[in-house]
Write a structure and sequence with these properties.
- The protein is α/β, with parallel strands linked by helices and 443 residues long.
- It contains 15 helices and 16 strands.
- The strands form 5 sheets. The chain has a 7-stranded mixed sheet with strand order 4-12-11-10-9-5-6, with helices on both faces. Strands 13-16-15 form a 3-stranded antiparallel sheet, with helices on one face.
- A hairpin with a 2-residue loop joins strand 7 and strand 8.
- Helix 1 packs across helix 3, helix 6 crosses helix 11 and helix 13 crosses helix 15.
- The protein starts with 11 loop residues before the first helix and ends in a 9-residue tail after the last helix.
């Protein structure tokens, strides 16, 4: 049943650890059927209750799953259905506020930057053996990180935020490890964790970011990693302020061995200062993509962190894609240095739309959250009904199920497509769709 791999151990903890070693090494493949508990107990010479306890531990850690009489198997991955499929398609005549895209009018034209990069490439083509990170890309990225108080660390280029986060998680964790994630949180992040064979643990938040008590509870329960969004949290717009950052640092101080990952995807589209937590633990990573400010299709993100983390990520990257296109890195450098994007103006544009919508909803008695970024989160009592009624009224919004684990129901509205004239009609439609709702803490 298990091929050449042999599960060993006399105590439940030893048996569970043996299975985890097999999963981590690949000797026990995803979907692998494990021996029945009585059969394994006989082989090991232990009580069946001992094996039952080991299997229970493995299920709780997300390493295996049990399907009644069909037995226990190593948990399959990746996840078969992404949360992104839980979306409402906007038919003709319906305004789409659910896709989560930036406003194309606020993105810079790319022609000049690509042309400049192509000219440089014609003079000096990129070849094998060159540094994986363009020196100017690293220098400019590091200067911006220094200005925001992010601790020193090597710079790695990744293919977007999610690619960077995945590489960091895989550099340190093994299947079954628990990862604390924001709830509600980025749907792709909630998909990624179980797809890697890891176990997501929800952490509640408010407008200032993750609640310190919720983080402390997750850490005390044994999570191996914590993923936090600094600003423009998706879907709620939360942003970590100075006081919350101090409180979270105090919590992390007692758990130096936890892997901390910060996602600052809102860089250059928010006007709130950054209060990084990086350095509060021994293993940390800080990720900053260019998607929202310069264009999602550029697929470039900056990753920095402690030397062990960045070395593991860059080393593994060399064995796969090798590097993120230096053509794209150089294009991003031109965008950073050309002055074609005014981050302050972009942040104000999103902020005006977001704040106007939150105010309009408040005037109509509707609770809404949106401290930063391009999204507004509205708690609702009936998520499905609210989405359907808004669609009938001409507005497609994102159902909260895409972003939730244990958090109460809600809907996400992206303000990117909105003009001033849209705010009142949209607020009226939302108020009519959600009805009276008891105020909620959305974490």
């Amino acid at each position: 049943m298990l091929g050449e791999y042999r599960i060993v151990g006399r105590r439940a903890s030893e048996i569970a650890a043996s299975v985890e070693r097999g999963v981590g090494s690949g000797d026990l493949a995803p979907g692998q059927l494990l021996p029945p508990m009585r059969e394994l107990a006989a082989v090991l010479g232990v009580n069946p209750n001992t094996v039952a306890a080991a299997y229970r531990t493995l299920r709780e850690r997300g390493v295996i799953e049990t399907a009644g009489r069909r037995g226990s198997r190593v948990r399959p991955r990746p996840a078969s259905t992404a949360r992104g499929s839980l979306r409402v398609e906007a038919p003709p005549g319906v305004r789409d506020l659910g896709a989560g895209n930036p406003d194309p009018a606020l993105l810079p034209p790319l022609g000049e930057a690509f042309a400049a990069t192509a000219g440089e490439y014609a003079r000096e083509p990129g070849m094998y053996g060159q540094a994986s990170v363009d020196p100017e890309f690293a220098a400019n990225a590091r200067a911006a990180l220094d200005a925001d108080g992010v601790p020193p660390g090597p710079v790695v280029a990744a293919s977007g935020s999610l690619d960077a986060i995945e590489r960091v998680l895989m550099a340190h964790l093994k299947p079954g490890d628990a990862v604390a994630v924001e709830d509600p949180g980025w749907g792709s992040m909630l998909d990624l964790v179980p797809a890697l064979g890891l176990r997501p643990v929800p952490v509640a938040l408010d407008d200032e970011g993750p609640l310190p008590d919720a983080v402390a509870h997750a850490l005390d329960a044994g999570v191996r990693a914590l993923v936090i969004t600094d600003r423009a949290q998706n879907p709620t717009g939360a942003a970590i302020g100075a006081e919350r950052a101090r409180a979270l640092r105090d919590v992390l101080a007692g758990h130096r061995d936890v892997l901390l990952i910060e996602d600052d995807h809102g860089h250059a589209i928010v006007d709130l200062p950054l209060y990084p937590l990086a350095g509060a633990t021994d293993r940390w990573a800080f990720v900053r993509s260019v998607a929202k400010a310069y264009g999602p299709d550029l697929r470039v993100a900056v990753l920095t962190g402690d030397p062990v983390t960045t070395d593991r990520v860059s080393g593994r990257q060399r064995l796969g894609p090798g590097w993120v296109s230096r053509l794209l890195q150089r294009t991003v450098v031109h965008l950073w240095t050309s002055g074609t994007v005014d981050p302050g103006a972009v942040a104000r544009a999103y902020g005006q739309r977001r704040d106007a919508l939150v105010r309009a909803l408040a005037e109509r008695g509707v609770e809404a959250h949106g401290r930063s970024g391009m999204n507004v989160w509205v708690p609702v009592a009936d998520e499905t009904g609210a989405v359907a009624r808004l669609l009938h009224a001409g507005w497609a919004v994102a159902p909260g199920a895409r972003f939730r684990m244990a958090a109460p129901q809600g809907i996400r509205l992206t303000v990117s497509p909105l003009a001033d004239a849209d705010i009142g009609p949209l607020a009226d439609a939302v108020a009519a769709a959600v009805g009276p709702v008891k105020p909620l803490t959305y974490g």
